[in-house]
Amino acid sequence: MKQDPIYVTQPFLPPKEEFLPYLEKIWNSKQLTNGGNLHQELEKQLSDYLEVSHISLFSNATIALMTALKLYNLSGEIITTPFSFAATAQAIDWNNCKPVFVDVEEGTFNIDPSLIEEKITDSTSAILPVHVYGTPCNVEEISNIALNNNLKVIYDAAHSFGINYKGKSLLTFGDLSVLSFHATKVFNTFEGGAIISKDIDSKEQIDEMKNFSLTENGDIKNSGLNGKLSEIHAAMGLLQLKYIEFCLNQRKCVSDKYDKAFKDILGISITQDDVRWNRNYSYYPISIDKEVFNKSRDDVFENLKSNSVFSRKYFYPSLNNMTYFKTKSDDLNLSSKFSTEILCLPIYPDLKPEEQERVIEIILK
User: What class has domain 16-239?
Assistant: First the structure.
């Protein structure tokens, strides 16, 4: 008997009847974009929920990343991680800068601060780290390196919605942080993103840049683009916020069940909790050691797929091994290694217990 497919993620969708009143407001106002009332309300509510001072909503996180880099008119080289989604390096490339890859750490899969300084040159202008799977980077050490070398720090915080580090929002570290509200994320606006900034001047510049850099008198004095979030997307965000605690709790239940199943399995490593931060359970990555588990990550991936379970090799391949960003380097070994070992398993609020049991059973057998 053919089994129903189980996907690595599914977006949480609130009841349609609760979305309709927002549509009524949009139809009545006839304002579909350009910072309407729902857009302004979402910014306010997100600032409160995330405990940040200034947030600028965007149509997607890639354009937000591009704008964040452009804000400082960066040039030359920008240090980043090869263990990330392509958009991280592409945003650098679109700003006519060169991504310089630094290898990652064991355990966190984040950029290794101890390797950053040896890659800094006279052409280096910034560091663009990624909080991989929502696990915080070593923000203190990265901050010290940046201060000592007069570099900007812009965090790709695509996975980091709602995460606090040592009692404060993870999004407040660095000069700027960029969130993703893509449909696959913990919090979604169908498609969207945001830049978290520290002062009103930066927010005003960002907001101007995402609207073609138009000034009040219609002049253009700086480079700009169209990165605005529509009222329809803002409405989805406002409704999603009402359910965010439910979604996080459901994700935690799924994660806890996986933890129980895999914690004592030789050859499978799972994410460890840390008292310094909370998890948002945006992903459930396992690392598979072929020599111990007797099956490779790819073996497990294909076996799941043959049983209609669609996991994800995330991130694969490592950016330094992609054609466009190919880097001939022997000091990115861990990133390349992890890209062949990590598999993200299905996790989302609506994942049924019997579906999760099916995923676990296939892996363990």
Answer: alpha beta
